[in-house]
Amino acid sequence: MSSSEFLSQFLFTLISAALLLTLIGAVKRVLLWSQGQSSTVHWRGLLQIPRRYLVDLHHVVARDKYMSNTHVATAGGFVLSAILIVLLYVFQLQLQLLTWALLGSSLLMFVGSIFVMIRRRNPPPNLSLGKWQRLPKSLMVFSLSFFILTLPATGILPSDTGGWLLALLLVIGIIWGIGEMFFGMTWGGPMKHAFAGALHLGLHRRQDRFGDGQSTGLKAIDLTANKLGVEKPVDFKWNQLLSFDACVECGRCENNCPAFAAGQPLNPKKLIQDMVIGMAGGDDAKFAGSPYPGIKVGTHKGGAIIPIVNILVESETLWSCTTCRACVEACPMMIEHVDAIVDMRRFETLEKGQTPGKGNEILENLSATDNPNGYAPNTRMNWAADQNLTVFGHNADKQEVTQADVLLWIGDAAFDMRNQRTLRAIIKLLRAANVDFAVLGDAECDSGDLARRLGDEANFQRLANSNIETMNQYNFNTIVTADPHAFHCLKNEYGELGGNYNVLHHTGFFAELVNQQKLKLDNSKELALTYHDPCYLGRYNGEYDAPRFLLESMGVKIKEMQRSKSTARCCGGGGGAPVTDIPGEQRIPDMRMADVTETKAEIVAVACPQCNLMLEGVVEPRPEVKDIAELMLDALIESTGEGVVADQVGGGS
User: Fold this and answer.
1) CA pair distance 389, 436, nearest whole angstrom
2) How confident is the model over 467-482, as a mean pLDDT?
3) CATH code 1.10.1660 for 371-514
4) Rg (CA), the chain
5) Residue-wise pLDDT tens digits, 277-313
6) Could you give the CA distance from residue 203 to residue 186 in angstroms, rounded to a whole number?
7) How far is residue 216's CA from residue 338's CA, in Å, rounded to a whole number?
8) Using an 8 Å Cβ cutoff, are 103 and 151 in contact?
9) How many CB atoms lie within 10 A of CB 344?
10) Are 267 and 239 within 8 A, CB to CB?
11) How many CB atoms lie within 10 A of CB 159?
């Protein structure tokens, strides 16, 4: 038997056995995922895996051009090579075209492996080391072995080139390469993400995320269930467990997490890896990435039926999250970190009553007064005593109001003197544009956003149902609000409870009015200004253009921060973070104000009352913080006349 014949028979046996063992490993991983709870499955999503992999996932990967090109070469080369190897050496389709294709795909993979090796030679801190450090060698050995093996088959080299010595070297290389590339996909090697990731894309809990869609609202839970929230890994939905296994440990989430940057005990990458440990059992001693700030690696253990909090993950880790979705936005595997965190918070809050900081006090206030600060509900409209607002229901003159074009949602800015200025500016702008609007007055309750992010689903659903019942008594076309958190709840989370409305953020609504020339703005002022994207307006709802359009309509040339739009740094005000107040090495709003200062802007424009409060809380000297509505009012000119100063338009002060 010649060396080439031996290699052919050996490869048939080796690859067949490898595929069988890979299948066994796949079954074992599926059994791990199946420990989770039942979940609605969209099996048709499996047919969408190629498109989601090549388009949706690659759009995220492409934000790093180096890794994008590397990924195309290595992943594309491997997938094509694996298919061709099976066709040539298992099904023994001896077609010259397939042989040449394998030569090209293995070469492509080899080139990609060189880029991986360069990246890993001096890796950035967000990349995990450990088993990942052997990946470049494995990619290289696999691709180079099959490239050399294929050269004689194409006729480039004579048959039996190198004889038995080369055959032996190829056998060693092929065993190593196949072991890492095939076994690693299902037995826990660095290629695990290739198998789990593909299935995760097909069976994702949020099917609407794909094809340029959005799905950011938290899922409601059944409040009559025996257990509320997630206590143990088995309490997650099974396709959430699958999603954890898809993590490639690239650390993009870590790079974008404001809590991690502030030195709080949260690293979203490690959190996902801890969930894998919990699912499969074991400890975190082998985790080779950045630890949670202030918490040593190797001190925590977990198991599928072992409680997570304070055994596998410290409670402070969960409560450090601002729910800004920067981790989710950055994740190339499209993992939903925030969903997992809120699921675990729900158990801590609803079942154990352990919400840190002022959390319990805030939730008690919401239960008693329908607002987080405990103000008497009938004082919600005290700030507007001089505004002569139209209120749905019975007005002071006893006339019943049941219809208006716009419902202006006031939100809890009604109880804050600083943000009342923004509300007054919005009212003047609406009146200047002759918008028919009304408010709910004292009948309006908190939107429930804070309760839901703190894990109090019961309070959220109570508040939401109360608001839905109130709003359904009246006729209006659009809800407009200045609060992105309320905007998100009303638009994306009330629908599951029966409240389906057309909701606009005030910047989106005013952009329409400016486009229609119902509002005219002076564009002659020169302002040194930057704009801060609110997380719940930008990443949660994809609204980046309307605020910038309004600023540009005022003649502003925006000094964009380095981290803006989808990569904007959180102000630190979301997810109940100011309430739970987990300490770190620095404050998130201070870091964001440092981003502002780098632009040398004198004003930072905001579009969120929470962002306003967080950034104004930074110690002076610092740039001035103004809502876009306030800037618009300063630039407003009357549409009929030579131009009237802003405070002459509309009523109130």
Assistant:
1) 11
2) 98
3) no
4) 29
5) 999 999 999 999 999 999 999 999 999 999 999 999 9
6) 17
7) 10
8) yes
9) 25
10) no
11) 11
Token pair listed for 651: 């009523």
Q: Which two structure tokens, joined as six digits, stand for 253?
A: 């989430």
- The gap from C-alpha 229 to its chain's centroid, in whole angstroms, comes to 20
Cα distance between residue 27 and residue 23, in whole Å: 6
Give Cβ neighbours of residue 398 (< 8 Å, ≥ 6 apart): none
SS3 637: strand
Could you say which DSSP state residue 517 is in? Answer: T
Q: 486 and 460 in contact (C-beta within 8 Å)?
A: no
371-514 and 518-635: identical CATH topology: yes
Q: What is the pLDDT of residues 99-125, one digit of tens each?
A: 999 999 999 999 999 999 999 999 999
Indicate the SS3 state at residue 325: coil
Q: How far apart are CA 340 and CA 275, in angstroms?
A: 9
pLDDT in tens, 512-563: 999 999 999 999 888 889 999 999 999 999 999 999 999 999 999 999 999 9
Q: Could you give the CA distance from residue 106 to residue 144 in angstroms, rounded to a whole number? A: 7
What are the structural domain ranges in the chain?
3-203, 224-351, 371-514, 518-635
Q: Which helix (H) or strand (E) segment is 634 a member of?
A: helix 628-635
3 state DSSP class of 503: strand
Structure tokens at 43: 């099996």
Strands (E), 266-404: 282-283, 301-302, 393-394, 400-401
Q: How far apart are CA 555 and CA 94, in angstroms?
A: 68
Q: Where are the alpha helices (DSSP H) in 501-569?
A: 506-515, 545-553
Percentages of the chain per state (helix, strand, coil), in multiples of 5: 55, 5, 40
The first and second tokens of residue 286, run together, are: 């082998």
Contacts of 620 (CB under 8 A, 6+ apart): none
CATH of region 518-635: 3.40.50
> CA-to-CA distance for 122 and 293, rounded, in angstroms?
22
What is the CATH code for 224-351?
1.10.1060
Q: How many helices (H) and strands (E) does the chain have?
A: 27, 13
| Distance separating alpha carbons of residues 345 and 351, to the nearest angstrom | 10
